[in-house]
Write a sequence for this structure.
């Protein structure tokens, strides 16, 4: 390993959670730190106490079901990209529509992607966020396509959206911050 090489962008005190532990380790992948679903952290902030809890898979998917708009995170021309979509949760998977000829449809088919949805109260400084990571696929026309398409909301974006994308929910994480009156 070259000790004069610059540090990777994910190292140092500003590193995203879980990535700093592998900085400078050649040939390894970042390792995600895991905590139990019961993990909670309490802090005093202003007049109210805040409690942050990591959500279990079942609770996270229930919250995701209540949301109507989320963000799909994917790779477009070797760069990270994010697009808002309105969606539904069907049989535990995230499902939404895209235009057949769009770069989004091309980039998503058989790609590992992330999907995030949340409900935030900026004034109350509380809310939740759920992230799903999994394999995205364009659903082929047929019975499954018809079943999923019938459960999807109408797209907000103008134009045709004839493709149905399903993200298999392989990894589901979430956090909720609540405020307790002080």
């Amino acid at each position: 390993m070259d000790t004069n090489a610059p540090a990777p962008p994910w190292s140092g005190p500003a590193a995203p959670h879980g990535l700093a532990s592998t900085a400078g380790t050649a040939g390894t992948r970042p390792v995600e730190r895991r905590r139990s679903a019961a993990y909670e952290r309490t802090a005093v902030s202003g007049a109210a106490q805040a409690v942050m809890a990591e959500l279990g898979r079942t609770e996270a998917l229930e919250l995701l079901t209540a949301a109507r708009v989320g963000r799909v995170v994917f790779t477009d021309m070797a760069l990270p990209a994010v697009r808002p979509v309105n969606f539904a949760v069907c049989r535990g998977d995230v499902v939404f529509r895209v235009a057949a000829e769009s770069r989004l449809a091309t980039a998503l088919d058989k790609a590992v992607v992330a999907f995030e949805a949340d409900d935030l109260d900026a004034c109350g400084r509380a809310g939740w966020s759920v992230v799903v990571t999994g394999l995205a696929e364009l659903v082929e026309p047929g019975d499954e396509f018809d079943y999923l398409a019938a459960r999807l909301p109408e797209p907000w974006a103008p134009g045709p959206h004839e493709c149905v994308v399903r993200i298999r929910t392989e990894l589901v994480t979430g956090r909720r911050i609540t405020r307790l009156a002080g």
Summary: Residues 35 and 54 are 8 Å apart (CA to CA).
